[in-house]
């Protein structure tokens, strides 16, 4: 069990009770905790709405929740039920382990996006190739044709930003369900009564034991084992899923006027940074991807937490754009198949740094300032990107950073050898 445990528990090992069942009973009873991801798997034996959280609730968040009819009378946020969190690796692996139908909404959308752009008063590109802001349109008012065109725009531009939004948690969830199967995360705090809407609120987690500060917050960008679980380490969400994440929306109803920005990095551009010969070497290769959370091995419960692992193409093809992209991230890409462990480590280190060291393949999204009762929404394609947040405000801003997230899972990853890179498809030079 965890070396951090301060209390010794004796397993009775009665013949009629299997060892794994006794361990499960011990954990679920609240007598012990298995620390697998900065203690976030089993943070508290208490679950349900948190009345203490209401004392920290930002004014803008309260307005949004109350206007949307979300019941926060018993507290906020909804803490995860420990009885619903998988303990053993085989349990966690079995979740969503069957292939399910997926519709790529952007695939047949109007390439010119006339219906979507007609509803905007302005279209502002954040950088040359990454990030776009759509002005004057409300996400809650989009029809299905506009939603399809938005899905294509997100696939092309990586991230699309909307400011001054009136977006209820229910409507945010509806958008996610339109774009795919919404992932419901058993380990995270949620909006009460709305499973599938994760609450992103570091200030609340700090009040409940998350140890993050100016010196340690970014250490995960050197080595994932030092990650503080504050989303400051570069990553792609849910790569361990059989069908990993696709479109994700993050709506901030409260944010610092300055600080707390999120950076997004393009997997299309990362792939095009590679030499043409190295692209040929990587095309068709597969890699092992692991989960953020760890679980006990039922056959070796005292061996420490183990991660879910799945195999996906190292270079993938996006079903809407048809462009190749580099599918790696330092936090969760474990090894490349078909090469030696030493070769895998060297290659992956270089591929991670392709993302991390090229400033021209990223865009920075600023959330604030946010008008009271409104919010800023960013919607990105997790398949073709990495992202990370910044904690330069250090939790000392007048306005706490609070957001809700919805992630739609996408297709079974594939590589099409006949697909093109982004620069190739756009007629841009490949070797200059």
UniProtKB/TrEMBL annotation:
Record carries keyword ATP-binding: no
GO cellular component, one term: cytoplasm
Name the UniProt record assigns to this protein: Unnamed protein product
Keyword Metal-binding listed: yes
Domain named TauD/TfdA-like: residues: 124-407
An annotated Gene Ontology molecular function: metal ion binding
Family as reported in the entry's similarity comment: Belongs to the TfdA dioxygenase family.
The protein's required cofactors: Fe(2+)
UniProt cross-references to InterPro entries, sorted A to Z: AtsK-like, TauD-like_sf, TauD/TfdA-like
Keywords carried by this UniProt record: Dioxygenase, Iron, Metal-binding, Oxidoreductase
């Amino acid at each position: 069990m965890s070396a951090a445990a301060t209390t010794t528990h004796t397993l009775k090992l009665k013949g009629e009770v299997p060892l794994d069942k006794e361990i499960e009973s011990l954990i679920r009873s609240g007598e012990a905790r298995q620390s697998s991801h900065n203690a976030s798997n089993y943070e508290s034996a208490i679950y349900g709405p948190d009345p203490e959280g209401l004392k920290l609730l930002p004014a803008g968040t309260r307005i949004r929740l109350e206007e949307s009819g979300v019941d926060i009378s018993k507290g906020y946020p909804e803490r995860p039920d420990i009885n619903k969190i998988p303990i053993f690796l085989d349990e966690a692996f079995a979740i969503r382990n069957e292939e399910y139908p997926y519709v790529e909404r952007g695939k047949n959308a109007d390439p010119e996006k006339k219906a979507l752009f007609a509803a905007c008063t302005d279209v502002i590109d954040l950088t040359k190739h990454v990030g776009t802001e759509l002005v004057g349109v409300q996400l809650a008012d989009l029809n299905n044709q506009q939603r399809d065109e938005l899905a294509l725009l997100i696939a092309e531009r990586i991230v699309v930003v909307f400011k001054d939004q009136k977006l209820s948690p229910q409507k945010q969830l509806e958008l996610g369900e339109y774009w795919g199967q919404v992932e419901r995360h058993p380990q995270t705090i949620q909006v009460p009564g709305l499973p599938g809407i994760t609450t992103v609120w570091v200030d609340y987690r700090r009040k409940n034991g998350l140890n993050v500060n100016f010196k340690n917050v970014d250490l995960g960008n050197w080595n994932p084992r030092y990650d503080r679980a504050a989303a400051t380490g570069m990553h792609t969400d849910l790569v361990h899923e059989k069908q990993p994440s696709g479109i994700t929306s993050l709506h901030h109803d409260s944010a610092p006027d300055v600080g707390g920005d999120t950076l997004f990095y393009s997997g299309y551009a990362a792939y095009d940074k590679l030499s043409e010969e190295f692209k040929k070497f990587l095309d068709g290769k597969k890699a092992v991807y692991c989960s953020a959370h760890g679980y006990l091995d039922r056959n070796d419960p005292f061996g420490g937490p183990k991660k879910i692992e799945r195999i996906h193409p190292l270079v993938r093809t996006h079903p809407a754009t048809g462009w190749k992209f580099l599918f790696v991230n330092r936090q969760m890409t474990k090894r490349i198949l078909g090469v030696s462990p030493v070769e895998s480590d060297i290659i992956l280190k270089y591929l991670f740094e392709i993302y991390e060291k090229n400033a021209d393949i990223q865009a920075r999204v600023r959330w604030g300032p946010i008008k009271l009762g409104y919010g800023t929404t960013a919607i990105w394609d997790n398949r073709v990107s990495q992202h990370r947040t910044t904690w330069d405000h250090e939790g000392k801003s007048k306005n706490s950073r609070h957001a809700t997230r919805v992630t739609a899972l996408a297709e079974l990853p594939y590589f099409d050898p006949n697909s093109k890179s982004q620069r190739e498809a756009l007629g841009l030079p490949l070797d200059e």
